[in-house]
């Protein structure tokens, strides 16, 4: 049974990586896209931003959608949107149509994390859920690592739109595999919940522990995506290294984090009674890794800082995703809990880069203190989570 569950998890993970590839495929070829469609930098930036806007609008109702449809039907719908968006992008010969295709591609990005957590808690109800969640949290980093290495040469050899063809083929293959191997969502009539989406979301909104986790995850996302976007600028503008070296150092940010998602999941499974403490340690270490960003000297120190921040961010994110389903008593509320945490996660993604960029215009020091302060906010939120849970246990 466990082997079967891990096989299905592998297929699910490949779906997450494919969605991440779809999100990031334009980054390595952005210059070529700008030239082909005659776009300004602002216009091309919207091709990434609109992808995330889909997530903000759909993250919160995501729990209700998965509750009504079931995780398999929703996953099939998400992969269908991925295929549709990429086929539309393949045919796009103007900017508005390309922008629309990116919005449609963003729909799977909005709900895939939540769908994955629901499946994990379904397949691993007692054992290995922490490990599976930790691995699941690495799909975005894995997608980033692959995208930055394959799409540039792919477009050079097979044309500018070849990444869209590649993702469409992957999507069709995965859609067939999901239809074949994933169990149906049939639920006995007696088990169906007649409560409305708002009624089921209400206990989540009144759950202080969920709020604490959501704020922590939002703080993590704020810092994560700010560094993803600004690391090359930090190394070229502040430390004055070459553009090639800056890109190399920035690429390490995604690579280093992958094994630490697995480590976080393993530790959360191994020491379930200390899950909150492990999460707090991850956020404290993330804060300590962020603060010295402007005090580095030489390549070795750059790599060490990237390593420490990448590792601790991945651990912090994975730990929160392990804790979120455990904060609700009823299994039907898991999707709502995760979707609410994801809502603040996507808010953090959207606001992180523009706010930090504005602070850089004041000074790099101001940006550094802001990022450190947001990391500290995440750590404080986990402390509040621990306090809330302790009070709940006493009562």
TrEMBL record:
One of its GO terms (molecular function) is transmembrane transporter activity. One of its GO terms (cellular component) is plasma membrane. Its main location: membrane. It is a multi-pass membrane protein. SUPFAM superfamilies: MFS general substrate transporter. It is found in: Cell membrane. It comes from the Bacteria. It holds the Pfam family MFS_1. The keyword Secreted does not apply. Keywords: Cell membrane, Membrane, Transmembrane, Transmembrane helix, Transport. This is MFS transporter.
């Amino acid at each position: 049974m466990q082997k079967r569950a891990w096989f299905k998890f592998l297929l699910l993970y490949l779906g997450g990586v494919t969605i991440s590839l779809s999100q990031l495929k334009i980054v390595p070829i952005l210059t070529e896209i700008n030239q082909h469609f005659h776009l300004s930098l602002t216009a091309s930036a919207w091709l990434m931003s609109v992808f995330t806007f889909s997530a903000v609008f759909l993250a919160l109702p995501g729990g209700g959608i998965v509750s009504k449809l079931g995780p398999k039907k929703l996953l099939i719908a998400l992969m269908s949107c991925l295929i549709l968006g990429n086929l539309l992008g393949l045919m796009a010969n103007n900017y508005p149509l390309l922008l629309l295709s990116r919005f449609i591609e963003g729909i799977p990005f909005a709900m895939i994390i939540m769908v994955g957590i629901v499946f994990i808690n379904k397949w691993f109800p007692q054992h290995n859920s922490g490990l599976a969640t930790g691995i699941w949290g690495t799909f975005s980093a894995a997608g980033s690592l692959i995208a930055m290495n394959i799409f540039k040469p792919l477009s050079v050899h097979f044309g500018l739109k070849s990444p869209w063809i590649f993702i469409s083929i992957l999507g069709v293959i995965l859609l067939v595999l999901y239809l074949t191997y994933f169990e149906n969502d049939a639920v006995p009539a007696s088990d169906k919940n007649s409560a409305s989406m708002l009624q089921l979301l209400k206990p989540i909104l009144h759950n202080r522990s969920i709020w604490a986790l959501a704020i922590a995850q939002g703080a993590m996302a704020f810092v994560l995506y700010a560094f993803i976007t600004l690391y090359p600028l930090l190394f070229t503008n502040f430390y004055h290294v070459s553009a090639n070296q800056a890109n190399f150092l920035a690429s390490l940010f995604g690579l280093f984090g992958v094994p630490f998602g697995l480590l976080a999941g393993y530790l959360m499974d191994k020491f379930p009674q200390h899950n909150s403490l492990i999460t707090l340690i991850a956020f404290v270490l993330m804060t300590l890794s962020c603060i010295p960003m402007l005090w580095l000297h030489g390549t070795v120190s750059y790599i060490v800082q990237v390593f420490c921040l990448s590792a601790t961010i991945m651990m912090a994110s994975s730990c929160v995703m392990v804790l979120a389903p455990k904060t609700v008593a009823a299994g039907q509320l898991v999707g709502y809990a995760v979707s609410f945490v994801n809502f603040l996660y996507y808010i953090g993604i959207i606001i992180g880069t523009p706010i930090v960029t504005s602070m850089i215009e004041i000074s790099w020091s101001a940006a550094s203190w802001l990022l450190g302060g947001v990391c500290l906010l995440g750590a404080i939120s986990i402390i509040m989570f621990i306090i809330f849970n302790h009070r709940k246990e006493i009562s």
